[in-house]
Amino acid sequence: MIMNRIVQVDGVISRRIGDEIVVITEGGTSTHVLNKTAAVIWELCDGEHSLDEISARLCERFEVTFDEVRRDTAEIIDRLITIGLLGRSEKTATERGEGPTT
Amino acid sequence: MKMPLKATVYMGVPVEVRTRTPSINRTLDIQIGSICCGLRCPDDEVYHRLRRLYGNFLAEQSADVTIELERTPGWNGSEVDDQVFSVLRDEPDVFVVEMQCSPAESDAGFRPLNRLFYLAYYSACLEKYGGSLPAMLVHACGVLRRGRALVLAGPSESGKTTIAGLCGENDGRVINDEMVLLSRPARDGGTSVQSVPITGGFPPGINITVPLSCILLLKKGSRTRVKPVAPVDAYLRFIRQIVTPTYLGQREGRTAAAMVADFSQETTSAVPVYELEFTLDGESLWREIGELEATMYGQVTK
Predict the structure, then answer these.
(1) Segment B203-216 mean pLDDT
(2) Taking CB atoms and an 8 Å cutoff, what residues of chain B touch A27?
C-alpha cells in the first residue's frame, strides 16, 4: 500500500506570527490564520510525514490519546485540503527531489 | 483639460535621452528613497508645473531610471489604470506606457504619475539591490512629531487625508497624506520613514527621513481611542497596506508576495502597532496620540 504524504500546495506562502501561522494563497487572493494546533500540523505537512506520523508527533506535545489526535488531525488536514492549502502526494519531498520545507 | 502623455521608461540614463536637445534641459532628477528618477518633460509648461510639485524632491545624482514624457495628441485613452500601463515596446530595459493626466484639476491631475513612480522605484531597486529591497512603499499618512514619524496606515477612504487635514501647526507636520517609504527594520528594531514624491489629497510634503515612532492602523469610529493590536491582526492589517513590488515588463507574483509577507512580519514584530479609532474631532485625536507617545517615550508631546 502506498502511504499518502501531505504537502503544502505550491504557491502558498506561510509565515509564523507568534503561536499562529498565516497562510496566504497564490496571488494573495485569500488569507488563513491557523491556530496553535493547526500551525504545528501545517509545519509537519512537509511531504515527509504521513497522517500517522503527524499524529504521533502531536501526541508528544499534547496530552491526548493517539486515536483522538489522529481523528482531529485528519479533520484539520481534510479541511485544509478542501480550501486548497494542502494536497496529497504519493512520494515524499525527498523522493520528489525537494528538501523538506520549514 | 486632459493631457494625454506617453511615458517611455529607460533603466538608467540611455545616450539617446542624454543627447537629445542638450541645450534645453527639461529633466527633473527626483529622489524616491535611495533611487533617483530622471523625469524628462515634454515642454516648459509641464516642466515648470512638475518642478513646483516635486521641488522638495529634486536630487543631484545620476538617474537610476529615466522617464521621458511626451504629449500624444489625439489619444483618447481612459484614465490611467492597469491596462494603460501595459508595455508597448518590448525592448530590454525600455518600456513605453500611455497615461492621461488632467493638470487643469490642479496638481492632483498629475496623480497618474504616482503609479509610474511606484513602478520606477521598484524596478530600479530590483536592478540596484537585486531581490532585497531596502524599503517598501506603504499606503499611509506620515506625520512628523518631535523628530519621529507616526505612520497612520489604511486603505483608500480610511481617513489618511482626513488625518492630514486635522493636523494643525501645533500637532505636527504632514510628511505625506497618501504614502511613505518604510525601511526594513535594523537589527536593533529601528525603522525609518522617508517621504516620497507621491500626490495624494495634498501635494507631496517635506522631503525628510526620520525614525519611525509607531504604526497606527486607521479605523473611522464614533469616538477617539488608541488600542493595541494582536500580533496576527497587526500582520494581516499591515500587509494589505504595503504596495506590492511590481516591475516594468515582468510579473513575479510569488516572489513579490513573499517579499511583502516578510516585510510585514519583520515590521510588525519590530515596531509598536496600534489601532487608532478616530472621529473628525482633531483636538481629541492629537490628545490621544500625545498620551500614547507619553507612554512610549515618557513625556507628553504636543
Answers:
(1) 95
(2) 253, 257
Distance CA B62, CA B44 (A): 22
State how far the Cα of B72 lies from the Cα of B55, in Å rounded to an integer.
25
Distance from CA of B273 to the nearest CA of A (A): 14
B232 CB within 8 Å of a chain A CB: yes
The band of B172, judged by pLDDT with boundaries at 50, 70 and 90, is: very high
Cβ pair B253:A18 closer than 8 A? no
Contact residues on chain B for A17, CB-CB shorter than 8 A: 231-232, 235, 265, 268-269
Read off the pLDDT of each residue in B39-57 and give the average, rounded to a whole number.
Answer: 92
Do B68 and B10 touch, CB atoms closer than 8 A?
yes
Q: What is the mean pLDDT of residues B182-204?
A: 93
pLDDT per residue as tens digits for the range A5-37? 899 999 899 999 999 999 999 877 889 999 999
Structural domains of chain A in order of their starting residue, each with its CATH number:
5-89 (3.90.930.60)
Q: Which of A22, A25, A24 is nearest to B231 (CA)?
A: A22
Q: Is the pTM value of this prediction over 0.95? A: no
Q: Is the pLDDT of residue B74 over 90?
A: no
CA B75, distance to chain mean position in Å, is: 28
**Averaged pLDDT for residues B214-226:** 97
CA angle B225, B227, B232 (to 5 degrees): 145
Q: What is the ipTM of this complex?
A: 0.80
Q: Spell out the residues 6+ positions from residue B64 whose beta carbon is closer than 8 angstroms to its own.
A: B11, B12, B35, B36, B37, B124, B127, B128
**The C-alpha cell that represents A26 in the structure block:** 497564490
Nearest to B236 among A13, A22, A27 (CB): A22
Query: Among partner residues B232, B258, B262, which is closest to A17 by beta-carbon distance?
Result: B232
> What is the distance between the alpha carbons of residues B112 and B101, in angstroms, rounded to a whole number?
6
- The DSSP code sequence of B98-138 is EEEE-GGG-GGGGTHHHHHHHHHHHHHHHHHHTT--SEEEE
**Closest by Cβ to A26, choosing from B254, B265, B269:** B254
Q: Of the given ranges (A67-76, B49-58, B94-103, B259-268), which has the lowest mean pLDDT?
A: B94-103
CA distance B200 to B180: 11
